[in-house]
Amino acid sequence: MEHVEMRNTIPALAIVIPCFNEEEVLPVTAPLFLGKLKSLIAQNKIAPESRVLYVDDGSRDRTWQIIRRLAKDAHIIGIRQSRNRGHQNTVLAGLMEAKDLFDITISIDCDGQDDLDAMDQMVDAYLHGYEVVYGVRSSREEDNFCKRFTAEAFYRLMKLLGAEVVFNHADYRLISGRVLRELAEFKEVNIFLRGLVPLAGFESTSVYYKRHRRAAGKSHYPLVKMLGLAFDGITSLSARPIHTITSMGLMVSALSFVMIVWIVACFCMGRTVQGWASTCVIASFIGGIQLLCTGVIGEYVGKIYLETKARPRYIISERTFEREDLL
Q1: Are 42 and 3 in contact (CB under 8 A)?
Q2: Three-class SS state of 140
Q3: Phi, psi angle pair for 322, to nearest 5°
Q4: Pairing of strands 132-137, 104-107
Q5: Would strands 76-81 and 169-176 be described as parallel, antiparallel, or unpaired?
Q6: Are 20 and 142 in contact (CB under 8 A)?
Q7: Residue 51 contacts residue 15 (beta carbons within 8 Å)
Q8: How far apart are CA 45 and CA 131, in angstroms?
Q9: ∠ at Cα 256 (255, 258), nearest 5°?
Q10: Contact 133, 125 (CB under 8 A)
Q11: Given its phi and psi angles, is residue 316 left (phi above 0), alpha (psi -120 to 50 degrees) or beta?
């Protein structure tokens, strides 16, 4: 563990909570988030001007109306994206909104699954000098076998591909304003915050907690979205799949050359037999490899296409507050 210095000032905290169609769960978890914020204020760990910041990801239900109603409490503020742009962009929007208004942020999902008491340890770690504090799941007992297997396989695959990610860490983390201002310099559209935050560097540590079941409603992150996030993470953080394709191409070329030599030798010895089986097997194998390689290359080309457009990663259409009042 790196040597860090204690901080003497009390930080202003923003608890950043992304929301998408969460009208069922918000009334259940909102009092919990507010209670934790007020508890930290009462313990003199964070400043009284700390806030809970909800970020609506273009929800189609009553989520924004609920956020506006919650914002009648002075400790709650909210922003709304102009349309749905995905979880990672929504978290980023909240972090960028908070970076100049607060000293630290803690991002957390609104479903109530992450242990709020871990925030105390996160703030303590910040006060002890750390700039980034990762919330890491101590176990996955609550997950079914499929989700547990795919999640752990994803983290191991990312490590194998050379990407720097924290095992069993999602998007529950504390980030200081200093780190957020550096993250603002990362301009890529293909966002994977679990990989970008470690790339920024700075002193970091982890706190471990046990995850609970969802408080209400249904998960908005099915297997398809999880796979999409995995592909974004891989293509955002690692070029190793391209290198793997090159190695695979060399290997297949070498095997093909050996096979050509063998076929010519058989022909010269008069041992060739006409047939379709070997031809079909070879054609299918080579065709499958080519399609796989083309698909992986296409993923990278598509990401390059999006990056060159340099479109906004998020657009905030409404706020429940005036920024000038918080500055």
Answers
A1: no
A2: coil
A3: -105, 125
A4: unpaired
A5: unpaired
A6: no
A7: yes
A8: 16
A9: 65
A10: yes
A11: beta
Residue 76 C-alpha from the chain's centroid: 24
* CA within 13 Å, CB half, 142: 11
Mean pLDDT, residues 193-207 taken together: 85
Give the tens place of pLDDT for each residue, 35-66. Answer: 999 999 999 999 999 999 999 999 999 999 99
Alpha helices in the chain (DSSP H): 26-42, 63-70, 87-98, 118-127, 145-160, 177-183, 193-200, 223-237, 240-268, 277-309, 323-326
**In the structure, how many helices (H) and strands (E) does the chain have?**
11, 8
Residue 52 makes CB contacts below 8 A (sequence gap 6+) with 14, 15, 17, 30, 33, 34, 37, 75, 76, 77
Length of the chain: 327
Q: The whole model's pTM is what?
A: 0.73
Sequence letter at residue 2 = E
* 3-class state of residue 299 by DSSP: helix
| Segment 119-168, tens digit of pLDDT | 999 999 999 989 999 998 877 666 666 666 666 676 676 677 666 777 77
CA distance 205 to 264: 62
